[in-house]
Amino acid sequence: MLGDARKAQEVFHATLREATLRSANGETPSDPFWLFRDARWRCLEASEHGLQAEAVELQEHDLSPSAPTQIERLDVNQLAIWISAAPEPQRTALALFYLDEFNHREILSLAELKIGELSRLLANGRRQFQAWLNTTVPQKEAK
Amino acid sequence: MKIVRLSRRQRLLANCAPISEERMNDRSMRAAVFCARGSGEFANQQSFDRAVAALVQSVPVPPEIGDWFSSENPIVSPKWRWKKTAQNPAVLSIGIALAVIAGVFMLRLFEHLQDFPGSGTAQRLLTIASSTRSVLLDPVRTDAGALGDLFFMKHQLEHYDVPPEFADFRTLGCRVFDDDEGHRVAQIWVIEKKMQFFLFPAERNAKTGAALDFSGWRYVEQEGWTGVVQERNGVCFMAALHGREKDLAPYVSKTKE
Fold first, then answer.
1. For A23-32, A103-112, B35-44, B236-245, which range has the lowest pLDDT when averaged over its residues?
2. Minimal CA–CA distance to B120: which of B181, B184, B162?
3. A35 interfacial to chain B (CB closer than 8 Å)
4. Chain A interface includes B70 (CB < 8 A)
5. Distances in Å between the alpha carbon of B145 and those of A77, B3, B137, B150, B169?
């Protein structure tokens, strides 16, 4: 979400502190996703400070059968930076989806999206990521 | 490459198809994935997603953060509450239906608990008792216990004896008739509370022909009339009156089981 480990850790601690305070005051949230919702809003808030990614029209390519090989060659930080640079709500959608901890209904609830929006954001995200992959790790090189 | 036709909704769902099978806990999603599975495009999407997820999984978690999440499942499922579950319309409907079924079952059970061999005949005779007028009977003024000899001598009805509990009551009249099933029935009208006595053959085993006996006094009710029945020597005796069980109970209380 943030592409910055230090910021992420700060958000994590702030969210945890809030949860502890609520628990101590007997105000435990009934929403099982409260922690994730709160963390998401804190991430969005934190990402408003500092450097902002420029809004640019990204290229899109069809998904390639060799994409898994290309992805394998990526560094995890490259992926984190790419996702954190995506505009909202695509960033949330991609982050929650690839965490592989939620089903699509939970993602819709957490990201406050409709199924059509989530579908479009993920489909476009994949195609844009593939285009970026093709530039960063060319297919020939990956093979 | 296989071409798969998907509806718009299925296409939207297929784009959000979860990476792990375990996240596919939605029927419409399962259907969409099932339909899309044949297409090469969807296969590319799945392998792409798996590769990205695998890369995400490789993100090192700082130990100080990892320690906070010792549990495998960080999402605590909502607490199951009786009140909330009971308010669900489906649960409510099932509950009501089960209650009605249980009610009918209990009613039938209680009805059958009252059953005894010959209870059907006894109920039919209670209907006869309610419609009998005293003029239909031959006037006889004696003790009810003495009529056993009359039934034997005049109608060859063996063991048609009035039990000792009711033997001392003075009679107004009696008659012997055949019921709907051709059984010989003796009917006695007594002065005491305008009670009527019936003597009729006990129900018999269809195969062996042996009388189906039962012990003690058994109550039977029909249209505001109550009867108390006893079986002895293959013959049932029933004392009937217009009233409730409590009106008959004092007569048999000393001998009732």
1. A23-32
2. B181
3. yes
4. no
5. 109, 97, 17, 10, 8
**B49 and B158 share a domain?**
no
Measure Cα distances from A117 to A90, A107, A139, B7, B244 in Å.
Answer: 9, 11, 30, 17, 74
Which 8-state DSSP code applies to residue B70?
-
Residue whose C-alpha is closest to residue A33's, from A107, A99, A121, A117: A107
Cβ contacts of A119 on chain B, cutoff 8 Å: 11-13, 15-16
Q: What is the mean pLDDT of residues A43-70?
A: 81
Residue B179: both structure tokens together: 């019921």
Our measurement of the distance from residue A112's CA atom to the centroid of its chain's CA atoms, rounded to an integer in Å, reads 14
- Map residue B143 onto helix, strand or coil: strand
A57 is a domain residue: no
Which residues on B lie below 8 Å from A67 (Cβ)? 44, 47-48, 51
Q: What is the residue range of A17's domain?
A: 1-52
Helix (H) or strand (E) holding B240: strand B235-242
CB pairs under 8 A between A and B: 97
Q: What is the rounded average pLDDT for all residues in chain B?
A: 85
Flag whether A58 is in a domain. Answer: no
